[in-house]
Amino acid sequence: MHIINKYITEDLKFTIQTIKEMKLNSQNFYNNIKKRRSVRDFDRKNFDIEIINNALKAAGSAPNGANLQPWHFVIIKNNKIKRKIRIAAEKEEREFYKKKASIEWLKALKPLGTDPNKAFLENAPYLIAIFEKKFSLSDKEKIKNYYVRESVGIATGILISCLHFSGLAMLTHTPSPMTFLNKILKRPNNEKPFVLLVVGFPSKKAKIPKFAKQKKKLNDISTIF
Ligand SMILES: Cc1cc2nc3c(=O)[nH]c(=O)nc-3n(C[C@H](O)[C@H](O)[C@H](O)COP(=O)(O)O)c2cc1C
What is the domain partition of the chain in residue ranges? Predict the structure, then answer.
């Protein structure tokens, strides 16, 4: 039994930590991640794309249905493309706030103070468009993917955590619908936009709604048997 455990551990390169280390590491991770807040006002300051690439590699290592890795990430740094995305997103957002959104939805959004103006889509140095792939295409063969939303959601969580850990601020933006992203970014029909991640540094005037800082307590989000 001991030998089997040792083999598995070596194969996984799994590091066994002491309980003290485990407690400290989990506490440190929480202390860091709890400082993440969605930012809607970005500075134009740039940064090395290697940080994005590392975060995307981390996202690409996520657990996923049958290891089919049903995602694609498009990095946008080109100003002309960012402008096209802003124009298309603001068009959808104007429709959303004026006509499409239910009164209930608008009420839920009110504390955030959001509106159809999406200047951050041009100001932030990078946008990352995340696409989910219901199926993959290889040599004209259609391969069905499984647990696509769950897999892409987990990968996006890892991406956000890595970028935050690297010292960057973000917004998970979801103008609805986002099909304009396929057209602007030349992505095929088997890909559906999942989230548009806005990445950079907060501007000096960036304000965080008080409401966003209120997180449910452990007892309210978990139970134990
Ligand atoms: C799937 C998803 C879509 C979101 N879409 C938008 C969006 O389109 N615009 C926006 O301003 N915030 C958007 N948000 C950000 C949420 O409003 C924000 O996460 C929430 O208010 C909690 O605040 P926090 O991220 O600072 O903790 C989105 C978040 C998620 C997870």
Answer: 1-35, 38-211
Strands 141-144 and 126-133, how do they pair? unpaired
Ligand 1 touching residue 174 (CB < 6 A): yes
Rg (CA), the chain: 20
Start-to-end C-alpha separation, the chain: 29
Q: How far is CA 71 from CA 41, 140, 142, in A?
A: 28, 18, 15
The pLDDT tens digits for 59-110 are: 999 999 999 999 999 999 999 999 999 999 999 999 999 999 999 999 999 9
Whole-prediction pTM: 0.94
108 lines ligand 1 (CB under 6 A): no
Q: Which CATH superfamily is domain 38-211 in?
A: NADH Oxidase (3.40.109.10)
Return the number of other C-beta atoms located less than 10 Å from residue 28's C-beta: 10
> Shortest CA distance to 168 belongs to which of 27, 28, 55?
55
> Within the chain, what is the greatest distance between any pair of CA atoms?
65
224 alpha carbon – ligand 1 mean position (Å): 29
| pLDDT one-digit tens code per residue, 121-134 | 999 999 999 999 99
